[in-house]
Design brief:
heterodimer, A: 635 residues, alpha/beta, Glutaredoxin, Rossmann fold, Ubiquitin-like (UB roll), five-stranded mixed β-sheet, 26 helices, 20 strands, globular, B: 158 residues, alpha+beta, Arc Repressor Mutant, subunit A, 2 domains, 6 helices, 41% helix, disordered N terminus
């Protein structure tokens, strides 16, 4: 890049370094949506108030999500010459003690893990956290890269998440941010960029896995005056929040990726379509855009070059189908988000009839690092046809719930057990659901499967955007399939018949299975219908909708048969097929269940095992939740 | 048709172009909490947008409501992670507490609206509910009622 640009970015970098690595104590509170939901705002407030009260020299700042959602709210404290420590499940009550310890020059007790160094992936800057005269207690705190949750992870896309302040562009630049854009604008032709992305082997992280470089090339080749770059941040899959986290923790990475993409395809205008349910992400991106504009990294003549580009946020209005690219474009145009038949693809006829590239948040956030580190470096990670890393939201009945980033091809077993720590309640793990409502359930016996586009498709699921929902033996697979059908029935735009009516009929059959009124013929009907909907629907929503039913019938047929034949729900979920009982041998007679029962169905003498009156029991499960002895059982 | 006179419908801050109809309706919903039919009709005339188009968009997107909402909106997340952690039971427990017949609806005194939403993206704290703008995580049937009781008690003192 030119000398002037180098000097300009170096000045920003210097500014960023002063807040990233200050000479005083630095307290970072994770304030992404999940942190805020667990009270991070009041913790940041408590730290600030306590510091002011004690006239103490320390810096309090906010950061995004470090991925350890199961330990939220997280606080990260760097103490000069003592090290950098991370604390989980912090409450406002412990803040005064922590401040008191810091004031005495001690490391507050209860640290979850510590960092010994920080290395910037892009510019190679290394910061060592000195630990002078560390006590045994401090030395015993596990080091981050040996910590089970992080050990198997490779954090490339999420490298800045939970480390930089997303509202401070200087910190992003200090981490090597916008240097890829500067290099691109100064030295590379659009064709070179496209070739780099092609060589990297990057495939779209939105779920379908289309080669990103090829998409860009096809759009580049169109000779249209107007072209658009669109970021798909309509992360509608229930159980997936990778995109939200990236937008809230490192918004500039997405902006930089979009600008590089715009330059490569020849666009000067772009839109970021963010779903309505993510107010925090919208606010973070808005602020980031503003800062980028002020720093001449967005708008006219970016970094003094001839390249200009504007980016605008479009707020969704709550429609799952708008994650489908043609529906998303219609929504930006101000219409109902009903998908169109493809071809023509958006790269030919997109926004307002012009060629448009639509990329997912994670795809775009990966671009700067591919440019900085080179395509060969990127393609050396992962497998041959699935390069790089993938971010997953590991949720459901798993112990370490959170956001994980692993190289493509990592076995599912490693993600669920080594990183996730197995099921949350020690029960046996039954399946993992991938790909949201369009995906399928993968049974435990197939957990050696490498997580990559092709392997997942081969076993009847899809990669999808990256939600991994862990299910234990108390999750009913028929009920889950029924849940997805009712979700998709609600979210189907209604344009094509197979999807609009087919999904509704599937949901009805599944409901009858759950209610115990279905017959074996119904199962056959369900299967036929599933294939029909998959083949005849217009867009991806309908075509992938039957995956959860088909994978269920393929891997968990026994469970379906138990509902149909024996009229039982082995997982104890389907209300019509279960009754609640009290196991007298386990009951301690504490009487909590009697108190909680909303229908007064539990009666009996004090300090003796009570009885459940089956006729009045509404099967709400409140007793099951509160019983300290686990004496409530379903049969 | 770009610049229109201030209309008093709440959407005057947004200059109408076909692509901003959604933003226009969002603005109206922000002001009233729902989309009152007479305001939609007025908007259609003022901005020369076919009424059918406004209704099509208002009924297509989940964020819009044509019915008046309660003072407090309780949204129970029914994302996958919440579903496997029995969000359905939470909805039913809240409905019982508020004497609502279904698992969605507004109380006759218009103090509470109960809704199901599809994933708030806070799956790590499943099951979650959102009361107005505050998210409450790892709820059980017992704690959710405690949260509601606290809110109701606070309202009594207002």
């Amino acid at each position: 890049m030119s000398d002037a640009t180098t000097r300009y970015l170096a000045a920003w970098k210097e500014k960023g370094i002063t807040t990233l690595f200050p000479n005083t104590i630095k307290i970072m509170v994770g304030t992404a949506s999940c942190g805020l939901a667990s009270g991070a705002a009041s913790i940041a407030q408590a730290f600030k108030a306590n510091i002011a009260q004690n006239n103490f020299d320390a810096m309090v700042t906010t950061t995004g999500c470090a991925g350890m959602c199961f330990q939220e709210p997280l606080v990260d404290i760097t103490i000069p010459r003592k090290g950098r420590f991370v604390y989980g499940r912090v409450t406002p009550e412990v803040v005064p003690q922590m401040i008191a310890a810091l004031q005495h020059g001690n490391v507050p007790d209860g640290a979850l893990l510590r960092y010994t160094r920080h290395e910037c992936l892009i510019n190679g800057f290394v910061k060592r956290y000195l630990t002078i005269g560390a006590t045994k207690k401090e030395r015993d705190v596990p080091i981050a890269h040996a910590f089970p949750f992080y050990r198997r992870q490779l954090r490339i896309v999420t490298r800045n998440c939970g480390f930089i302040d997303p509202e401070n562009i200087a910190e992003y630049i200090a981490q090597g941010g916008y240097s890829a854009l500067a290099t691109v604008l100064d030295k590379k032709s659009p064709q070179q960029i496209i070739r780099m992305v092609e060589q990297s082997g990057l495939r779209g992280r939105g779920g379908a896995g289309f080669p990103t470089g090829l998409k860009w090339r096809l759009c580049r080749e169109r000779t249209s005056k107007h072209k658009y770059i669109v970021c798909n941040a309509d992360e509608g899959d229930p159980g997936a929040y990778m995109d939200r986290t990236i937008l809230e923790s490192d918004p500039h990475a997405v902006i930089e990726g979009m600008l590089i993409a715009a330059y490569a395809i020849g666009a000067t205008e772009g839109y970021i379509y963010i779903r309505d349910e993510y107010p925090r992400a919208i606010a973070c991106v808005e602020k980031a855009l503003q800062q980028a504009r002020e720093a001449h990294l967005l708008g006219k003549h970016i970094l003094g070059s001839s390249f200009s580009c504007t980016l605008t946020i479009v707020r969704g209005a709550g429609a799952f189908v708008c994650g489908e690219e043609t529906a998303l474009l219609k929504s930006i145009e101000g219409d109902c988000g009903e998908p169109n038949q493809r071809p023509p693809y958006p790269i030919e006829v997109g926004l307002w009839g012009n060629p448009t590239v639509i990329n997912n948040v994670e795809t775009l956030a990966t671009i700067p690092i591919i440019i900085s580190k080179g395509p060969r470096w990127f393609s050396s990670i992962g497998t041959k046809t699935n390069t790089g890393t993938k971010v997953f939201s590991l949720v459901g009945k798993v112990q370490n719930i959170g956001l994980v980033e692993v190289p493509m091809g990592t076995p599912l077993r490693d993600i669920v057990y080594a990183i996730g720590g197995g099921t949350s309640n020690g029960r046996s793990c039954k399946a993992v659901q991938t790909g949201g409502p369009s995906g399928g359930c993968i049974p435990e016996r197939l957990f050696n499967l490498p997580v990559e586009y092709d392997a997942l498709a081969h076993c009847g699921s899809i990669m999808g955007s990256g939600g991994l929902i862990v299910m234990d033996d108390k999750t009913c697979m028929v009920d889950v399939a029924c849940y997805f059908m009712s979700f998709l029935e609600h979210e189907s735009c209604g344009k094509c018949v197979p999807c609009r009516i087919g999904i509704r009929r599937m949901r009805e059959v599944l409901e009858s299975i759950c209610a115990g009124t279905a017959t074996v013929e119904d199962l056959e009907k369900l299967e036929t219908l599933a294939h029909l909907v998959a083949q005849a629907s217009l867009c991806g929503l309908g075509r992938t909708a039957p995956n959860s039913v088909l994978s269920g019938l393929r891997y968990f047929r026994d469970e379906y048969m138990a509902h149909v034949h024996d009229k039982t729900c082995p997982a104890g979920v389907c209300k019509n097929l279960i009754t609640y009982r009290i196991a007298e041998s386990a009951c301690t007679g504490c009487g909590v269940c009697k108190k909680i029962c909303p229908s007064g169905a539990i009666t009996g003498p004090r300090k003796k095992p009570p009885q459940i009156d089956i006729a009045t029991c509404i099967k709400c499960g409140a007793c099951l939740d509160v019983c300290p002895a686990g004496a409530i059982i379903t049969i | 048709m770009a610049d229109t006179e201030p209309s008093g419908t709440g959407g005057e801050n947004i200059r109408y172009s076909s692509s901003s109809i959604i933003a226009l309706l969002q603005e109206i919903q922000n002001i009233y909490g729902y989309l009152p039919r007479d305001i939609i009709k007025k908007t259609a005339i003022e901005h020369s947008i076919p009424l059918s188009r406004l209704f099509a968009i208002a009924t297509f997107y989940n964020a819009f409501s044509l019915e008046e909402q309660g003072r407090h909106i309780i949204s129970v997340c029914h994302g996958t992670a919440c579903h496997v952690k029995k969000a359905k039971n939470l909805s039913e427990a809240i409905a019982r507490h508020l004497n609502l017949s279904g698992s969605e609806g507004t109380t006759p005194d218009r103090l509470f609206s109960l809704k199901k939403v599809r994933c708030l993206g806070c799956c790590s704290m499943a099951p979650v509910i959102k009361i107005d703008d505050t998210i409450h995580g790892t709820m059980t049937q017992t704690t959710v009622i405690q949260v509601l009781r606290k809110l109701q008690k606070g309202m009594l003192h207002e």
